[in-house]
Amino acid sequence: MAGTALLVMDIQNGIVGRFGEDSGYLPHLRRAIDAARAADLPVIFVRVGFRENYPEVSSRNKAFAAVAQYGGFTADALEIAPEVAPEPGEIVVTKRRVSAFTGSDLDVVLRAADVDTLVLTGISTSGVVLSTLRQAADLDFGITVLSDGCLDQDEEVHRVLVEKVFPRQADVITIDTWIEKL
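The structure assignment produced for this chain is given below.
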């Protein structure tokens, strides 16, 4: 699996807290992270964040204008959830929009590491995972989505994306299946 990296996207305190600790998601995701590390695959963490006073946020951006108005995605909300925190030396990319590529140096990091295949996980399926998948496909990356490594507030939206939309541009498998292939 040379040339493959696991992206762990938007698993930060300001987002994870919306789902409650009982979801079982973080320990499950941790299995994928541990497996990638054991296979010597890069694990790259992506988070959304802004500077103080939100100079990156346009009033025309409906989603992020609301964040800027009420405050969020600064300070503690930027921190990756401790249950899946990066190890020393692992890359953390800060993005300024929904896609992991937009407003970040992710593409430069991936190209410098000769990564041509991405394994996507994150919160939310209908947000960062969808946007990153679409942009990664346009950038000619090979893509795998770990269906149970993604989480969304709307279970039906998650189901439609992983069963009907994502397979058009990515391989969609479970964490267990991916680990077996490593």
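Interim note for the steering committee: The longest strand covers residues 142-151. The beta strands are 4-9, 43-48, 92-95, 117-123, 142-151, 171-173.
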